[in-house]
Amino acid sequence: MGLMDRLPGSGSAPTSGGIFGQGGPTFLTSKIDAIVNWGRLNSLWPMPFGTACCAIEMMASAASNYDIARFGMERMSFSPRQADVLICAGRVPYKLAPVLRRIWDQMPQPKWCISMGACASSGGVFDVYSMVQGIDTIVPVDVYIPGCPPRPEGLIYGLMMIQEKIRQESLSKHFEHRSEDPLLVAQPNANEQEIVGLTGPFGNSTRQERLSSGAVPRGETRRNPIYD
Amino acid sequence: MTEETMSAFDGIDEGPLPSDAARASAPRFPASQSADPTIVALGERFGERILGQRVSAGDQHVVWIDSGAILEVMTWLKEDARQAFDMMSDVTGIDYGQGRPVEVVYQMYSTRHKHALRVRCPLDTDPLEIDSVAVLWRSANWLEREVYDMFGVAFRGHPDLRRILMPIDYAEGHPLRKDFPLRGRFSRAEQTRRALNQDVDRFYSEEILAQGREAQEAARPEIGTRGANEGEV
Amino acid sequence: MARKTVEIPVGRNPEMGVDGRPVASPLQPFDIPEPEFGTERMLINIGPQHPATHGVLRLVCELDGETVTSVIPDIGYLHSSFEKLGEYRTWNQIVTLTDRMDYLAPLIYNCAYVMSVEKLMGIEVTERCKVVRVILMEMDRIFGHLLWLGTTAIDVGAFTPFLYAFQERENIYQLHEKLTGARITTSATRVGGMMADLPEGWTEQLRTFLRKFPDTLAEIDRLLTRNQIHIGRTQGVGAISAEDAINYGFTGPNLRATGVDYDVRKDRPYYDYETYDFEIPIGRHGDCYDRYLCRMEEMRQSVRILHQALDRLPGGPINVDDPSISLPSKTDAMSDMESMIHHFKLITEGIPAPEGDCYYAVEGSKGELGMYVVAEEGGTKPVRWRIRPPSFVNLSVIPKLAEGHMVADLIMINASLDIVLGEIDR
């Protein structure tokens, strides 16, 4: 009686039939997190910030042979206001850095960032005066995809890693993880010591650990031979 | 890590080494005679302004011209019927470093005679200036802007001399000079900070636009353009 | 020299249909009176992040309504200082830098650079190497033009040619990968030869591609060439005269669309191009439509050259047989002391160059690609490495081409110039 009778599929009419067969109920229970994350990760709209060669591999991923439309990502959103994941594909010089930051700031939460290619992740071949040594000094990056350029399969693997990351998110931590401090708009994403450390002999992206012996123990700042 | 292995890393901070320092062995203005008819004609007309000539890499004719005479020589090269260099393929600079003068190099081509020529102009260090040939060839406009940006060479009479590849208010210097370090003069943090504080909109003021418009209007009366509605079928 | 004027019989009057009969429209533009009100000019900014700028290009437009009164292109958003990096790398190490400039046709850059260095050093490559490089350059010309075709069609609004073009490009990606291991950043050439000889089955794969490619090209042609919308968007848009084009330094299909028959392969031939039988397409009006026709025809001519090159591909060594230039084979280096020393010196020091400079021009897919190298006596790194980028000079004409047109036409003009920002900003 009551609710169970009023549900479609609960009667004995020929057209009734739910998910679990004739006469079964037509609802299922799940966690809100699972459903929200399922919805988000299967319909990510990428914001392609393609600059150089990696952008061509990104276009090849969107074309018929590799086809990211299978992942729900064929709708490349060129407006950041409607985008979910920023794919920074290609090298980013300092002249382009404020543009990248502005695009990132314009994207509404929830948003993720993929740094595609060696140049976006760490400056790549270009340890020069004009090149940002890793976009994680400017925007917070979720997934780094190495390669020069990474194959479309590599990009797809990176996208799947983002999907995995999204799958593990929780709405209960929404305010913690997804709130943005308006004062940090247009500010660099890394502190001065970290950025200065990029210019050392093994200078690399701020989130990578140095593995050689003589590495600085975690928590200590590294003395930079040039500027200290 | 032992002291020996640590000392092996000395100097690694400077990064890879640039090309070998300029040697004084090669003559700067070779005097070898090139049989190229253009260079012969140049010699006849502008004798004292030619500083040297050479045949480079087998069959490429190079001539060194005094930088004060460049506009005169270029005008003649463009307008004389037997030379008719109607295309300026490239304008670039060379900085050898070690005090050697910066040279501006022009690659020119004549579509009529199918003939190429290279003109090199050593410049005085102070002031680092040369006349602009943008009034003769419109392709030189952006090419000279790039030489200005990368080497600091000022082109007198250029309609729009601004930086083109670096941001307009780039303060570290002129990148392709040999005394400019590969990673730049400021620290990465300073470069990042300056980059993010750029306000790109302020570089397109009415004055800059008016300058650009004037340069375009100056070009219009001389050369005709086939418009869309001229009834060409 | 064989020239072929590309002229397709379609009406050029915008009010005439394809079959020559006038298209009736209810209201002619000149019937509607122009409203009289004072307008202020508006400044809008297109880019640097924009799908239709074909890279990180910023176009600052001053508009009077929808009409562009002036446009200022702002470049430098991809400046990676290749030229300065080149001064810190040995001759062979620079080859890896050359792919990353024109990432749409990397093999042309690879070849052009080592051709310039070889000329400076006076190295004559083997016959097989010459033919292989011709094959790779023509293949990459098709590669670059296909991407241009796909993205320009998208700018007009046609999505299908993009997918067809990229499907064909996949075949060339496979060929790149089979030869070098990388799809885009090939670095296939070295001073004195190539990184590796053509693997087995490579020429057969290329022939298969060449057999099927003309059909796809014909399909795309059917979609675009006589398409009313495409014609309306491209005919009469961005026209330039021949004298202007030469003065502005236009090269490549952009210049040939204006009627000038300057093609570096015919005028300053290299690698026996004068012995290949091909034509260069020449347009007449210098507008976007003619540039489109020229590039389509160029792809067909490249197929022709490729067939001839494949037929005449000789056997023999691919690298110059000089141990001070080309790396000795691994077995030799491991067994013979002298080879090991040569190997060591080539890797650690590099190849010493004679004093001099060399400007080498090839016909890139975008225009005249020049590589200028300056070396000091015995130098293993260049004193100055200059790339004369065709797109840089082609783009500088945009203010002139776009004036008086509408914003949508500006996008079309930008697309038809076939620019690649990697080589503009270097």
Can you name the CATH architecture of the domain at 44-184 in chain A?
Answer: 3-Layer(aba) Sandwich
Helix content of chain A: 25-40%
Low-pLDDT stretches of chain C? none
Q: What percentage of residues of chain C falls in helices of 4 or more residues?
A: 40-55%
User: Rounded to an integer, what's the Rg of chain A over CA atoms?
Assistant: 23 Å
Please, could you describe this protein's structure?
The complex is a heterotrimer of chains A (228), B (233) and C (426). The longest helix of chain A is centred in the C-terminal third of the chain and has 16 residues. A four-stranded parallel β-sheet of chain A has the order 1-2-3-4. Chain A contains eight helices and four strands; from the N terminus they run ααβαβαβαβααα. Chain A has a domain of 141 residues: Rossmann fold (3-Layer(aba) Sandwich), CATH 3.40.50.12280. Chain A is of the alpha/beta class. Chain B has one domain: Beta Polymerase, domain 2, CATH 3.30.460. Chain B starts with a helix and ends in a 14-residue tail after the last helix. The C terminus of chain B is likely disordered. With 426 residues, chain C is α+β, with helices and mostly antiparallel strands. Chain C has a three-stranded antiparallel β-sheet with strand order 2-3-4. Chain C has a domain of 262 residues: Cytochrome-c3 Hydrogenase, chain B (Orthogonal Bundle). At the B-C interface, strand 3, helix 4 and helix 6 of B face strand 3, strand 4, helix 1, helix 8 and strand 8 of C.
SSE inventory with pairings:
The complex is a heterotrimer of chains A (228), B (233) and C (426).
Chain A: H1 3-6, H2 32-41, E1 46-50, H3 53-62, E2 85-89, H4 97-106, E3 112-116, H5 118-122, E4 143-145, H6 152-167, H7 174-178, H8 192-196
Parallel strand pairs in A: 1-2, 2-3, 3-4
Chain B: H1 3-8, H2 37-46, E1 50-56, E2 60-65, H3 70-79, E3 87-94, E4 103-110, E5 115-122, E6 129-131, H4 140-151, E7 154-156, H5 188-196, H6 206-219
Parallel strand pairs in B: 2-5, 6-7
Antiparallel strand pairs in B: 1-2, 3-4, 4-5
Chain C: E1 3-5, E2 42-46, E3 58-64, E4 67-74, H1 82-86, H2 95-99, H3 106-121, H4 127-156, H5 160-180, E5 189-190, E6 193-194, H6 202-224, H7 228-234, H8 242-247, H9 253-256, H10 264-267, E7 280-282, H11 288-311, H12 330-335, H13 337-348, E8 356-363, E9 368-375, E10 384-388, H14 390-395, H15 398-402, H16 407-416, H17 421-425
Parallel strand pairs in C: 1-7
Antiparallel strand pairs in C: 2-3, 3-4, 5-6, 8-9, 9-10
Helix pairs in contact in C: 3-4, 4-5, 4-11, 4-16, 5-6, 6-11
